[in-house]
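Hello again, I could really use a second opinion on something today. Take your time with it, there's no hurry, and the full record follows here:

___
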Amino acid sequence: MLVHDAHDGRTRLLDFFVAVPGAAGATGELLELAIDFDGDTQQRFLTGAPAVAVPGTVLGLETAHRRWGTVPWAELAAPAAALARSGVELTPAQGYLHRILDGLLRHSPEGDAMYGGRALAAGERFAVPELGESIERIGAEGAEALISGELARAVVAHVQAGGGAMTLEDLAGYRVARRRPLTLEYRGHEFRTNPPPSAGGLLVALGLRVLGESEVTPEAIAIAMEAQEAASAGSFARALHRGGLAQRLLSGTTHISVVDASGVAASLSASLGSGSGVVVPRTGIHLNNMLGEAHLVTGARPGERLTSMMAPSIMLKEGEPRLVVGSAGSARLRGAILQVVANVVGRGLSVEEAVDAPRIHVEEGVVHCEDAAVADLFAAEGREVVRFRRRNLYFGGVSAVKVSADGSLSAAGDPRRGGAGVVIR
């Protein structure tokens, strides 16, 4: 979570991403599953209990609440508990996710039971009453419920029974890390984002540096994304933990962007990865599969924080927030944020237009395109192109708030993932 506090003008970064379990080794084997994006492309995932990393989200949110919260913790938890009990009607984007991720979500008996023995569809109601009880317990006991309480013991017992490595000592030893945001100048704005050991913010910043004052075109975006990919090769992952990488280079995820009435801006990214399908019995808790994300685990040692592509970010102009932005989307989110920032700051688009605009993703020399004309352009250059027939959640899920010079707000959630932007007056 990246927070810019209007009261003191400081931007702070709380890192509560998952950590690698400590001394205990996994006894089970990872399960490999392939996910198909409607025939346009395919992605392989590793999952199961050995893929579960040490979670820190609840402790991180509690830490942020103690610093900036104004509503009592239990009161904040109550609506989520109520929704888990009564259920929510799945949107088309959520129905699509349930369909393509079905093999991940329901590969375990507990996951199969949670999701009703089949892939749920848009318009159906999804309820997890046991999760409502767990959230209520967290509301009453705080993060301690998932550190040493009954929920913590249930999580560890289930992970270990499935061959995973996590222990109660791992949960008790987890700490929220406070970091100095990474900062870069881009077209008269100050871009602040998630620093190493996270990779995403650094790569977005690198892409913006490569773009510089150039016209924001598909070709320019592709060059910036190729620079991102080249930078993340080789010993990049280990270098993130050693430090100094930012200076050398610059010399399923959920995102929420918020600006409140007092001018405090928050950019929050949280992730289960693709979801492990490992559901803790009688709790409704669906655990992460982050140790199955090879590009995140490389270079990380027991007890260390995993690297992440998540890049909660804020653009400032003359010290005032102008754009609060972040995205879901695994390795694609760095390009999604890059393109939205370039669209708003470099092209002058509204935040709604910037989020909705067709995107590209460049990986291993292949250009994935949402726009047919852009695909034709790259094909004419002799590039290998993957054409998507419509907007697709493969290209991330950006949530953004724009603050105009007069203080007025506009917000956008990515239609690719059923996102929404709301301004409350």
Notes: The CA atoms of residues 26 and 325 lie 36 Å apart. The longest strand covers residues 320-328.
